[in-house]
Amino acid sequence: MVAGTRRGFIGGATALAATAAFGGAAQAAPRPAGTGRRRTARRSVAVLGGGVAGLTAAHELAERGFAVTVYERKAALGGKARSMDVPGSARGGRRPLPGEHGFRFIPGFYRNLPDTLRRIPFPGNDNGCHDNLVPSTEVMLARIGHEDIRLPFRSIGKPPPVLTPDAFVRMLTALLETFAGLPPHEIAYFAGRLLVWFTSSERRRTQEWERVPWFDFTRAGRMSANYRQLLAIGITRNIVATKAEVASTKTVSTCVEAFLYNALGRGADGEPDRVLNAPTNEAWIDPWVSHLRTLGVEFRTGWAVRELRPAGGRIAEAVLEDATGTRRVVTADHFVSAMPVEHARRTWNAQVRAADPALARCDRLQTDWMTGIQFYLTEPTPIVHGHINHIDSPWSLTAVGQAQYWSGRDFRRDYGDGTVADCLSVDVSEWDRPGILYGRTAKQCTREEVAREVWAQMKAGLNDTGRTVLSDAKLHSWFLDPAVELDGTRASNDEQLLIHPTGTWYDRPAARTAIPNLFLAGDYVAVDIDLATMEGANAAARAAVNALLDEEGSGAQRCEVIPPYRAPEFEGLKRQDEFRHRLGLANVFDLG
Questions:
Q1: Residues 308, 49: Cα–Cα separation, whole Å
Q2: Which of 74, 489, 539, 580 is deepest in the core (most CB within 10 A)?
Q3: Phi-psi region for residue 176, left (φ > 0), alpha (ψ -120 to 50) or beta?
C-alpha cells in the first residue's frame, strides 16, 4: 500500500507493505451452554468469514456449546470494521499509527450490536466493550462557498406525550429550518413526504416504496438546487453510498426513520452519534477475539474459501486455500457463510445454486466503493465534536477528527514517531465523479493523487469562510485503505459496500437456505435493518444461528433479534394504510 511519509505531499509517497498484527488470549475451556436433543457430542460449525457477521455467529454458537472454527481470508480478523497498523510508522517504542477501512460510527438506533458489545469483557468496564462508546454532540455540513452548518446531534430529551401527525410535522419543520437557503414550502413538503413514510404500512413499504427511487419520492427534480443537494443527493451518497436517482426509498427512509426516533430518545440504545474511545481493534476487535478464544473458538486467518461442495443434499465440505496457497478440505456438521456477498457468491457452484435457486438472485445484488483515507496531523484539529459531511464535495466526503474521543490516549506519546497529534479519518463515497484538482475520477487517479484530491476538497469546504482550518504545514502523512489498488489507469477494490438500488430487496436471501446445513450471515441478508451496516451483519448472524438451532432441534435459548423501534402512535395509521393499499389507494397523507 502507499502512504504519504513526509509532512504534506512534497517529496511523494513511499510504497509500504500492508500488514495487520493480531493477538489473542490463550484458549480456555468452552463455557457450558444449552444442549439440543440430537447432540451427544459437540457439533461442529465452520464459520466462513471473520468480519462482524462471522464473529457474531461464532460468539452466539460458542455460548451454546458448539465447536466453532472461523476461517478468514485476510491476515487479520474484523473485516471492514477492523483498524490496522500503518506499516513502518512506529518510532521510539510507540505503536504504529492507526489506520482503518473507514471510521466507526455506531448510532444509538443500533440495538443488536450494542447487546454483543456488552457481552465482550473489557478491563475496568462494567458493560464490557459497550462502555468504550462515546457520544458526539454535533454534526457539521461543510458547504463550499457558504457558511458551514453546525447542528446539535443528540437526544432532545423526553418526546411529546403523544406523537401526532401534526406534532411530527412540526418537529421535522423545526429541524429542517436550520438548513439555510431552503424555501419554507420545500421544508414543509419534505416533512410531509416523511410523514407519508412513517404512516405507510409494511406492505406498502415493501411492495411500493421499494420500487420508487428516493429522488422521485422526495420530488427532488421539482425543487431547488439546495433541496436536491441537502435532502436528496447528500443523504444518499454521503451516508448510504448510493445515488438518489436509483436508491430505494425503503432503504433510505428506514435509515432516516431510525435516526429521527433516536433523536427523540425513542427505543434507542444511546445517543444518535457514537464512536469508539480508541482505535477499533484496541477498543473492540482484539478483546472480542480474545473472549471468543476463551469460549473455545478457533481461528484460521489467511484461509480463503474457494468452493462449497454438496453431497446428499447437504454441504459435505468446503475447499479453502490457506496462507501458503495450499488447498485444504474442511468438513463440519454445519457451515455459516459469513462473507460479503461479492465474495460469498463466488463459492456457490452450480450444484449449490441448483439446490437453492434463491442464491442465484444474489448475483443481482450490487456493490460500490466507500473507502477510507486517514490524514495524520501534527497539531490537534478538533473541527467539530462530531462528524463532518462535506455536502458539496464532488467525491461525497465525510470525516471525523478522532483524537478528541480517545481520552485514554496521548497521540504523540502512544502512536507514530512522536510528532503526530491527531487523525482526521475520511470516507470517500463517490469514486466515479471528476475532482477539483485533477479533473479526474478517483478511480482514474494514483493513490498519491487521491490523497491530494481529498485534502483539496476538504480544504475547499472548510477554509472558504476566512479561517484556515486545515493547513498543509500541519499535514504529517496519510494512509489509504490497502484494499484499494490504483495506478492511474486501473482500479480495484477488494472491500466494497453493498448498495440498495430500487427492487434489490427482493433479491436478498434469508439466513436459512434450502440446504439444511448451510446458513447465511452478512449485511446482504434480508433483516429489518435494510442497510449495509454492522448492525445488519450482527442481526443476520443471530438469525443464522437461530436457523441452525432450529435445524438441530436444539433446546438452547434462541438469539434475540431486536427489531427497529416503531412508534405506537402511528400503528393505527399504518393499519389504515394497509387497508388502503389493498384497495389500490394512496397513503392518506400522500398529496402528490
A1: 14
A2: 539
A3: alpha
Cell 393505527 locates to 572
* Sign (positive or negative) of CA dihedral 520, 326, 495, 53: positive
| Rounded Cα gap, residues 339 and 523, in angstroms | 9
Domains of the chain: 2-19+81-136+273-279+370-493 (no CATH), 44-73+302-367+498-552 (3.50.50.60), 156-267 (no CATH)
pTM for this entry: 0.89
Tell me the sheet residues that pair with 315.
310
Strand, coil or helix: what is 396? coil
Helix axes 52-63, 534-552, angle to 10 degrees: 40
Here the cell at position 419 is: 510528532
| Residue whose C-alpha is closest to residue 278's, from 411, 80, 137 | 411
Question: Looking up cell 472454527, which residue turns up?
Answer: 69
> Using CA atoms, how far apart are residues 79 and 339, in angstroms rounded to an integer?
9
Q: How far apart are CA 79 and CA 77, in angstroms?
A: 6
Closest to 339 measured CA to CA, from 76, 71, 100: 71
DSSP-derived secondary structure for 153-181: -S--SSPPSS--HHHHHHHHHHHHTTSTT
pLDDT tens-place string over residues 222-270: 999 889 888 888 777 766 667 788 899 999 999 999 989 998 888 899 9
Between CA 196 and CA 284 the distance in angstroms is: 39
Can you tell me the distance from the alpha carbon of 145 to that of 461, in angstroms, rounded to the nearest whole number? 7
Place of cell 488447498: 327
Contacts of 489 (CB under 8 A, 6+ apart): 444
Burial class of residue 26, CB neighbours in 10 A (0-12, 13-18, 19+): exposed
Average pLDDT value for residue range 341-367: 96
Compute and round to an integer the Cα radius of gyration of the chain. 24
The pLDDT of residue 592? 77
**Alpha-helix residue ranges (DSSP H) falling in 360-511:** 411-414, 447-462
Interstrand relation of 518-520 and 334-337 (parallel, antiparallel or unpaired): parallel
* Alpha helix stretches (DSSP H) within 51-143: 52-63, 112-118
For residues 561 and 547, the answer to whether their CB atoms sit within 8 Å is no
Secondary structure (3-state) at 320: strand
The mean pLDDT of 575-585, rounded to a whole number, is 97
User: Sign of the CA dihedral 510, 515, 517, 522?
Assistant: negative
Other C-beta atoms closer than 10 Å to the C-beta of 277 total 17
Distance CA 325, CA 323 (A): 6
Task: Identify which of 496, 550, 553 has the alpha carbon closest to the alpha carbon of residue 519.
Answer: 550
**Residue 6 in this model has a pLDDT that exceeds 60:** no
The rounded distance, in Å, linking the Cα atoms of 362 and 506 is: 10
Between 26 and 578, residue with greater pLDDT: 578
Question: DSSP letter at 370?
Answer: -
What's the pLDDT score for residue 289? Answer: 98
Mean residue pLDDT across the chain: 89
